[in-house]
Amino acid sequence: MEFVAQQIMNALSFGAEYALLALGLAIVFSIMGLVNFAHGEIIAVGGYTMVAMAALSLNNPLIVVGAAILAAAIGAVTLERVAFRPVRYADPTTGLLTAFGVSIVLQNLFLLLVSPRPIAVTSLYFLEWPIPFVGLRISSLQLFETITTIIVIVVMMLFLKRTVLGLAMRAAALDFEMVRLTGIKANRVFAAAFLISGLLAGIACVFIMARRGSVDPHLGFDPVLMAFVACVVGGFGSLPGAVIGGFLLGAIEVAMLVLLPQSLGGMTEAFVFGSIALLLIWRPDGILTPPREKGDKQ
Amino acid sequence: MKKTLIALTCLAMAGPAMADDTIKIGLGVPMTGDYAPYAEWQGARCMAKMINDKGGVDGKMIEVLTQDSGADTQTAISLAQKFLDEGVVMLGTIPFSDTMIPVAQVANSYGVSIFQPQSTQVEMHAGIVDNFFTGVSPDPFTATAAANHALSLGVKNVVLMTSDEGGSWSARTPLWFGEVIEAGGGKILSKMNFSFGTSDWSPQIAEMKALGEQIDGIYISSIMPDIAVLVRQLKSAGIDAYVIGSDGFDDPSLDAIGSEDASILDKVFFGTLAPSHAESAVVKFMADCKAMGIDVPGLFPATGADTVMAVAWAVEQSGSTDPSTIADTIRNADSIPVLTVDSISFKETRTFAQRTIPVIGYKNGKRVLISNEIPKNTPTDWN
Fold it and tell me: Searching chain A, which residue's CA lies closest to the CA of residue B190?
């Protein structure tokens, strides 16, 4: 029983991380139709900012965390301005290729200008300690990550439903031209989407760095690929779908790790993605298909 | 027309003379991409500069030709072809058999061999090609060295972590470790799977706790930063076992996890390619290179120096820059001086270096050399 409870907690933690990352991808996609694969490099920007903070002997955790989130947000907005705005109205394939291009360029800049090897960042180690809880030994980091993700989801819901900019973003996800006709500036909506995406990347970065304790040029690439899968499972463009997809993916991953016999260990990912394929056969557009896909717009 | 012919004849005559004045080593190796941390080109360039500054080898200068292969086999093959046409006497390439084998096949018709100073995978030694040298001993040796030390510490009950993602390095090395442990009276409690890039080991740790038995040691052949996460999470979960591994542990970022609490590294040790503690030749070489303005950030980049030293030694011994003669001289030598260990030899092993295997541990958060021997009880079944 303890074992099962422990693994449920692990699945929640895995899922929370994927959900945070998937939300960052989904919010940009819902408005711009862009799968921003450079999202992972925004996470790495946050990681390298922590390295810079350590080099400057600024080890106060609040400063380190704040600087990482700020750097990720600024990085995301800068990418929107420099790389994605010029291709905003181009074919979606152009946007996708731009995102891959930006990702590759940034990875190699980190590699050539900083180091190809992992650089240790120990300033967030304090976030992890064991918490005894009814016979379980829960990691504080897992708890923080799950709670933070829930808070982020609630704050995002409030922002999207209770603020003018949030309403504009939701409207833009359905019919961007109509939003522009009401006088709302397109640049503002896009910049806001990237800003939120960057903030989410920054928050995810804090947890990833607290756990890994080091940054390398590929820090965010693999997690973002998993987040992309979570978005597809949840229904691309749907924010609740991204969250559900993230938690579902986390649960499937932990289940496969635990349930598969050792002889099939090399097939873990095959089984994870096989399960997802079955899910997509059942729901080809993901679990929560965005309204637009159901024909609200056309 | 006549002038052109004369010029071409002069060039053709000048070509071999220029080649004889320079010993060219071609490194089509990863400088970017996933394998960039191997970076043997950095150590090779530094060692070449050191030798050239002292007058070269019998007056001949060493030229290290480097170009980025990324992690792409086809690029590595193209670069090998380019370097072969430029008259290299030895090649370096991506340190994995799926690249080394086709590159060796291309180089074979030129009489040129590959010297790869980092490859420990056993696949290369299956007899598909023979015009190559791996400057280090294969993984069964590092696994055995680590297992012998574990047994000397009284480690009996072990958990083996395996992954198919790194070939035999991550899939078989733990099993060779387990084989030696069992031969020494120990017991394998469980084998568990993992993936590269794991940043949360909680599912595996929960499985370990569910075993309900005292775990003395956990063996894993993986990479940083995954290992550092595992070490920290094991401690956090209250599992007081030795964390034992291979050369993947050999990264400065592992040392960094002891910066706050040095005791976290007390029960970590690994068999690796070469001694890399504070007093080692590798660390001194890195400092010397830094003073020369060349960054050699760690053991793996430093191993490139072995390639240059082996080639320079063979040219000096044979008095020839013919690639086949150089390869034969290396293969038949009793002892070749290199940077990372005192000497290596291919005389008995033919394709991999027989050399001592260091086991590195930690004391007060600092690396210490625990042992440095050629293990005698290495498993012989590599298939």
Answer: A262
Q: Distance between CA atoms of B93 and B74, rounded to whole angstroms?
A: 11
Position A269, amino acid: E
Strand boundaries in A4-150, DSSP class E = 119-120, 130-133, 136-139
Spatial CB neighbours of A99, under 8 Å, sequence gap ≥ 6 = A34, A35, A36, A37, A38, A84
pTM (global) more than 0.95: no
What is the CB neighbour count within 10 angstroms for residue B249?
25
Question: H helices of B197-346, where?
Answer: 202-211, 226-236, 252-255, 281-291, 299-302, 304-318, 323-331
**Amino acid letter for position A133:** F
Q: Find chain B residues with C-beta within 8 A of A268's C-beta.
A: 193, 195
Taking only the tens place, the pLDDT of each residue in A13-64 is 899 999 999 999 999 998 888 899 999 999 999 999 999 998 898 888 899 9
To probe the interface with B, which of A2, A3, A117 has the most B CB atoms within 10 Å?
A117
- What pLDDT is recorded for position A290? 58
Nearest 5°: the CA angle B363, B369, B373 is 150
- What's the pLDDT score for residue B18? 45
As for how many domains chain A has, the answer is: 1
**Would the pLDDT of A175 be above 70?**
yes
Q: What is the pLDDT of residue B375?
A: 95
Q: Does A144 touch chain B (CB under 8 A)?
A: no
Query: Residue A124's domain spans which residues?
Result: 2-218
In a domain, A280, yes or no: no
In a domain, A297, yes or no: no
The reply to whether A80 falls in a domain is yes
Global ipTM: 0.78
Contact A139 B37 (CB under 8 A): no
A3 close to B (CB below 8 A): yes
Query: A43-57, A164-178, B9-23, B123-137: which has the highest mean pLDDT?
Result: A43-57
Domains of chain B and any CATH numbers: 2-136+278-344 (3.40.50.2300), 139-272+357-373 (3.40.50.2300)
Query: Which pLDDT band holds residue B11 (cuts at 50, 70, 90)?
Result: very low
Partners of B354 in the β-ladder:
B345
pLDDT tens digits, one per residue of A130-142: 888 777 778 888 8
**B40-78 in b/e burial notation, b at 16+ Cβ within 10 A?**
bbbbbbbbbbbbbeeebbeebebbbbbbbbbbbbebbbe
**Alpha-carbon torsion (B130, B134, B135, B141), positive or negative:** negative
